[in-house]
Amino acid sequence: MEDFKDISRVVVLVDDLDRCLPESVVMTLEAIKLFLSVPKMAFVIAADEALVRAAIAQHFDASQQEVGWPATTSRRSSRSRSRSLPSGRATPRPSIGVER
User: Fold this and answer.
1) Which of 14, 42, 59, 64 could form an SS bridge with 69, CB 3.0 to 4.6 Å?
2) Element (H, E) at 66
3) How many CB atoms lie within 10 A of CB 57?
4) How far is CA 46 from CA 16, 51, 76, 82, in A?
5) What is the CA radius of gyration of the chain?
6) Domain ranges of the chain
7) How much is the pLDDT for 67?
8) CB atoms within 10 A of CB 48
């Protein structure tokens, strides 16, 4: 890891996650979860939150039904942090500085 001491941060951009199949959405989020504890790692996910939630619910409801568990309607982690960005023709205002 000493080879990477000059790197201030690694940012991974994930776009259009909401266009993936429910299984792919869950697999991608589980892969991201593995890296959340890695220092200097950050993830930016561009997706419709409602569609991602629906894909997660569909995936896990189907998985639970296969095992015989009752389906649930809502899963929200208390640790999740999301921020909606403006969509459409609005010009976003710069709010994040350059990290050095």
Assistant:
1) 64
2) helix 49-67
3) 16
4) 6, 12, 18, 10
5) 17
6) 16-67
7) 60
8) 14
pTM of the entire structure? 0.60
Can you read off the two tokens belonging to residue 67?
């095992």
C-alpha 65/C-alpha 87 separation (Å) is 36
Residue 21 pLDDT class (50, 70, 90 cuts): very high
Task: Please state, in angstroms and as integers, the Cα–Cα distance from residue 78 to each residue in 72, 74, 82, 89, following that order.
Answer: 17, 12, 11, 32
Burial of 25 (0-12, 13-18, 19+ CB in 10 A): buried
Contact present, 17 and 52 (Cβ < 8 Å) = yes
DSSP for 17-57, please give it. Answer: GGGS-HHHHHHHHHHHHHHTTSTTEEEEEES-HHHHHHHHH
How many Cα atoms occupy the beta-carbon half-sphere of 22 within 13 Å? 12
